[in-house]
Amino acid sequence: MVKKFFERFYVGLIILFLYAPIIILILLSFNSSKSRAKWGGFTLRWYRELFKNESIMNALYTTLIIAVLSALIATIIGTAAAIAINSMKKTPRTIMIAITNIPMLNADIVTGISLMLLFVALKFTLGFTSVLISHITFNIPYVILSVMPKLKQLNPHTYEAALDLGATPLYAFFKVILPDIFPGVLTGFFLAFTMSLDDFVITHFTKGPQINTLSTKIYTEVRKGIKPEIYALSTLMFVTVLLLLIIINRKNDKNANKNTIISKI
Amino acid sequence: MKLRNVLKTRTPKSPVHKSASGPNMPKAKWLSFPYIVWMIGFIIIPLVVIFYYGLTTSDSTFTLNNIALVMDPINLKALKQALELSLVSTVICLLLAYPLAMILNKSKMNSNSFIVMIIILPMWMNFLLRTIAWQNILEKTGIINTILNFFKLPTVNIINTPAAIILGMVYNFLPFMVLPIYNVLIKIDQDVINAARDLGANGMQTFLKIILPLSLPGVISGITMVFVPSLTTFVISTILGGNKIVLIGNVIEQQFRVGNWHAGSGLSLVLMIFILISMAILSKYDKEGSSLW
Amino acid sequence: MTDNKLINLVNITKSYGDNVVLDDLNLYIRENEFVTLLGPSGCGKTTTLRIIGGFETPDKGQVIFEGKDITKVPPNERQVNTVFQKYALFNHMTIAENIAFGLKIKKKSKAYIQDKIKYALKLVNLDGFENRMPDSLSGGQQQRIAIARAIVNEPKVLLLDEPLGALDLKLRQDMQYELIRLKNELGITFVYVTHDQEEALTMSDTIVVMNQGYIQQIGTPEEIYNEPKNAFVADFIGESNILPGIMVEDKLVNIFGVNFVCVDTGFGKNKPVDVVIRPEDIDLVKPEEGIIKGVVTSLIFKGVHYEMEVHACDHDWLVHSTDLFPVGTEVGIWVDPFDIQIMNKPESEDEEAVEVEL
């Protein structure tokens, strides 16, 4: 009993550690004082002004567009690659996986710098496209690593059964394989989207002077003080995702309950 | 334990189909074509380019001077400090994450995704903002000191010290230690643990001889995933270190900011030596990258 | 075999949530006995084994080992060892290290451990496998290593949880003989869990048939097969015709309106009973020579014998015979009196779980 208490206490402490800064940021979004350091009373002013602030809305727009596009393209390229890697023999497979691991394990600063140098060497103007390409590059591995385990669990004979029943390979892929690996594909997309949204370092090096994402905009404000509208925007984004995940989890839980009942029988 | 045995360590096989190559799709390898082109274009060639810049001067002659810059006392100090702080952060992350992963594994929450969610969710608050929020907690008139004041305790000065940077690193990278360890722990067959108990091992012996060795691939993944970003960060040190603490990441970023690309690339190559060492160690333990997520 | 009670399970009850897995189970196991817990999945046999091994604690009741209550003793302090269903070998250790695991913990000398490894590998016919890794072995070999790893600790009891379940038929049969040989060489008690009746009949000294958390019957393989105590046992062990009957008087039973002579007594007069007749105990004869007449409705060749269904008295009788009677043949059914097994009808659901004293 005592042990159980300590375990819960420990988990609670870690969760507090992870979420304390988030609570502070949410509080700051309601702080009527412009200064981060003191509490000036409750206000909703920053939420109203947020939508009038063109530079923040622009940065938000750029961030979301890049996150959606990079996640989408990475999901397509990555899922195709995962299927291919899964059907490869041992040696090419090991090589592919090793190269896939490079952007995941390499330091962001090195990835960012190397991509920037490439764009510069090719006389490619830094801007939206260079950021998008960079985000796709670091997103693909997340998709591959999410899809691979699902492919390994796949019963190899269902695909053959589909062919046996007269399906073309393409039809069999969309009707048999894709539905089975879809949860992995979705996880991959979700992870890629999150990583893109949260990235600062690689964007910092590849964005050029013309555009800003939320991350790079925040970084330019670190010294002179963050605009409170940013806290409001982050709070909105965080709460949206939180609600979304709670809904998804509820649905899954209902399904899971059904499953556990069946497995008990 | 003999090295050979360590290398043989695998996470227990999942009870699914044995065929490693999945569905027999002879034409599937063409699906990797776009990815291979992409990898060569945006992973391999950029690395070649950074080598080129790192090993040449601005008039394209070969030089080792850019790399030798690391011996400059200021840069050397920055590298040394980055190594120290990232090592300490990695150790702290490991010490915090392993018990947490054990508890989460024991709790047998059947929704694996719920745990992943709890740990990934903070990423939806921008990482710069979350780090900035630590200023509020740590600064002279911040939350910790307000609480200490309230209880009439002496205040602490953490902000702009190495401790603040370590805290920032641990905060930002802890999830990358928890997830891989948790992922290998849930794959350990309960009967393997029962077998150890059955053969006379007590709780501690079971942990040291069975659970720990079997979870090693996850631990190694976690160490790499925390150590590399900690070693190379310039953001955390900028936000939580004021201007007082300069890490190697800050030096490199500064070189690029002032347009000194060759010097910056040279120093990046030095950094890559450390990254390569960690990657080599990781790939020995976890060939499939299966425990990363 | 001595009459010494080595393990005694007293009033064991165990449930998971609302699901009662074991309900007031009583069972003792003697020294040097090969006991098999047999039953369909979910009958509580594995839970019983895990309670003996110490991996589960019963909600109620006691586990007595050599006269001492060990209900709360953790598995690592029990003098029993387990062979797990999927072997549960330590994949990060060599075969030798796997086998040495328990001995190292007991701080045995290096020379002793080396001797034991050699001895155990020889015993399971895998000499020279010391430095192999578990995942380079076949399923059957891994199984033998799991057994070797358990027996080097010289347990008083070896618990085996469906150890042959993952092996293919031929290997399974070979391993059955191996296990009998091992048991005789080691001279220790085996408690074996399986759902495979053939395995149970081949290897056991004593079979404990379980269903839904209750013991249905305890007996030697011959007793279980020839004299099933109730319809469940009769149905689960081998194939059988279970027919409704009325005990007219001692040694005479009425089935479908026809009187059959049997050997059972003591059921009272005009009492409804279940009658069990094994398919191989039915003789097909000329129509006029049988007790009842019928027509062959299906015929399947099974290798050793033919399996036929005979329609007689509005019932399909299952018959095994080496003689062939084509479909449509009129036959007579003959059963020897001692091949007819009479059982009391269960009066209620609970009654089906009879209390059995050995």
Please tell me about this protein's structure.
By secondary structure, chain A is mainly alpha-helical. Chain A has a domain at 56-240: MetI-like fold. Chain A is 80% helix and 0% strand. In chain A, helix 1 (2-28) packs antiparallel against helix 11, helix 3 crosses helix 8 and helix 6 (128-153) crosses helix 8 (169-198). Chain A is globular and about 70 Å long. Chain B is built from 13 helices and no strands. In chain B, helix 4 runs antiparallel to helix 10, helix 4 (73-106) crosses helix 12 and helix 12 runs antiparallel to helix 13 (261-285). The radius of gyration of chain B is 23 Å and the shape is globular. The relative contact order of chain B is 0.15. Chain C has two domains: 5-227, P-loop containing nucleotide triphosphate hydrolases (Rossmann fold), CATH 3.40.50; 241-343, Beta Barrel (OB fold (Dihydrolipoamide Acetyltransferase, E2P)), CATH 2.40.50. Helices cover 23% and strands 35% of the residues of chain C. A six-stranded mixed β-sheet of chain C has the order 6-7-8-3-9-10, sandwiched between helices. In chain C, strands 13-12-11-14-20 form a five-stranded antiparallel β-sheet. Chain C has helices at residues 45-53, 95-105, 110-123, 139-151, 169-186, 197-203, 221-226, 231-236; strands spanning 5-16, 19-30, 34-38, 60-65, 68-69, 80-83, 157-161, 189-194, 206-211, 214-219, 241-249, 252-255, 258-261, 271-277, 282-285, 292-301, 306-312, 315-321, 330-335, 341-344. Classes of the chains: A mainly alpha (265), B mainly alpha (293), C alpha+beta (358). Chains in contact: A-B, B-C. Chains A and B meet through helix 1, helix 3, helix 4, helix 5 and helix 6 of A and helix 2, helix 4, helix 5, helix 6 and helix 8 of B. Chain C: Its EC number is 7.6.2.11. Chain C: It catalyses: ATP + H2O + polyamine-[polyamine-binding protein]Side 1 = ADP + phosphate + polyamineSide 2 + [polyamine-binding protein]Side 1. Chain C: InterPro entries: AAA+_ATPase, ABC_SmlMolc_Importer, ABC_transporter-like_ATP-bd, ABC_transporter-like_CS, Mo/tungstate-bd_C_term_dom, P-loop_NTPase, PotA-like, PotA_ATP-bd. Chain C: Belongs to the ABC transporter superfamily. Spermidine/putrescine importer (TC 3.A.1.11.1) family. Chain C: Keywords: ATP-binding, Cell membrane, Hydrolase, Membrane, Nucleotide-binding, Translocase, Transport.
